[in-house]
């Protein structure tokens, strides 16, 4: 697998024979250095994108000006905007509404692109039928802004499906589905990404909006999925156990809201009706019964996750066993989130 460059930015020469008809859309939390590494990788593309639109969630005007000064000479069509703090989903929607090119590529700000990313996406997009295109994503916990020694949790993020699923194996087996369409590296015709309202707008929620859009386009509109092997990114995201737990609970709360908007999608994704009275009652009982066990499980997982990365040798099956140790806690947290989502909905209804 390739690795993103960490040295000086080498700006690739443009390819005038192929004017890019694609806009890159990047919602950004503007973490220190993260967005800059993403923009540097776009500056090094073999085929330049037609435009790059960045939305700074809660950003300030001075920061917008600084990014334009630094990167406009190297990133064609750079458009950086300060947006009200509302989360990545509204930021992406605001950017997507302003796209004028035939195709759009959605990226996260914490990815670094392979030099052939734009070219590979366009090769697949221009092949004929309406398609959604995605490509390889290597997970990395090696955040330059976080110099702490690597831990077993870092290895779990990088080497297992604890947090992020690797679509490469599914693509190689011809089993690519909407479940592998993550918004951190996803392209389509701009019109498709806007169809039926585009990505779900769920203020304050996190997750599922990319998979839901892919489900809707493939199931309702017959859009095909395509894999672009040259459209790779490195996704750098270092998580603590606390962040991992908060993330899982947030996903549970989001699932409740998404199921209200598209019950067919969520029933297929989960294999159950998460909004049914029976399932909600089951979750309440499971959370009550499992509270003590979940607390012990979390304490043990925190101790194991904090151990040095070299504690488990490379290739050892023990790393997978440690991943399995997380599953009971994951279920508990997700169910807690689902219950919270139901209670919040009830509160909004008065």
TrEMBL record:
Pfam family, one: Glycos_transf_2
UniProt xrefs under InterPro entries: Glyco_trans_2-like (IPR001173), Nucleotide-diphossugar_trans (IPR029044)
UniProt superkingdom: Bacteria
Domain Glycosyltransferase 2-like: 23-150
Name used for this protein in its record: Glycosyltransferase 2-like domain-containing protein
Species: Phycisphaera mikurensis (strain NBRC 102666 / KCTC 22515 / FYK2301M01)
């Amino acid at each position: 697998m390739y690795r993103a460059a960490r040295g000086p930015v080498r700006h690739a020469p443009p390819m005038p024979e192929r004017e890019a008809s694609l806009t890159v859309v990047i919602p950004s939390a503007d973490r220190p250095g993260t967005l800059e590494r993403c923009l540097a990788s776009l500056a090094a593309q073999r085929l330049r994108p037609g435009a790059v639109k960045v939305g700074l969630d809660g950003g300030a005007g001075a920061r917008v000006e600084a990014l334009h000064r630094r990167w406009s000479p190297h990133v064609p069509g750079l458009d950086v905007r300060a947006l009200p703090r509302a989360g990545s989903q509204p930021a992406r929607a605001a950017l997507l509404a302003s796209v004028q090119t035939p195709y759009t590529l959605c990226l996260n700000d914490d990815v670094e692109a392979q030099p052939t990313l734009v070219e590979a996406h366009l090769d697949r997009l221009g092949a004929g039928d309406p398609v959604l295109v995605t490509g390889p994503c290597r997970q990395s916990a090696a955040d330059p802004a976080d110099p702490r020694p690597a831990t077993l949790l870092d290895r779990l993020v990088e080497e297992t499906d604890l947090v992020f699923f690797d679509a490469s194996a599914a693509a190689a087996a011809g089993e690519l589905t909407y479940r592998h369409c993550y918004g951190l590296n996803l392209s389509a015709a701009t019109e498709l990404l806007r169809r039926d309202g585009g990505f779900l707008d769920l203020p304050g929620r996190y997750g599922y909006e990319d998979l839901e859009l892919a489900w809707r386009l493939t199931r309702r509109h017959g859009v095909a999925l395509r894999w672009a092997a040259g459209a790779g990114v490195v996704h750098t995201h270092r998580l603590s156990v606390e962040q991992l737990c908060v993330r899982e609970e947030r996903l549970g709360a989001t699932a409740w809201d998404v199921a209200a908007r598209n019950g067919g999608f969520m029933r297929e994704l989960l294999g159950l009706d998460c909004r049914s009275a029976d399932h909600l009652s089951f979750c309440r009982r499971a959370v009550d019964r499992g509270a003590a066990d979940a607390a012990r499980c979390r304490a043990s997982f925190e101790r194991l996750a904090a151990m040095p990365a070299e504690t488990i040798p490379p290739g050892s099956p023990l790393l997978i066993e440690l991943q399995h140790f997380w599953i009971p806690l994951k279920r508990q947290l997700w169910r807690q989130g689902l219950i919270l989502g139901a209670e919040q909905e009830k509160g909004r209804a008065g």
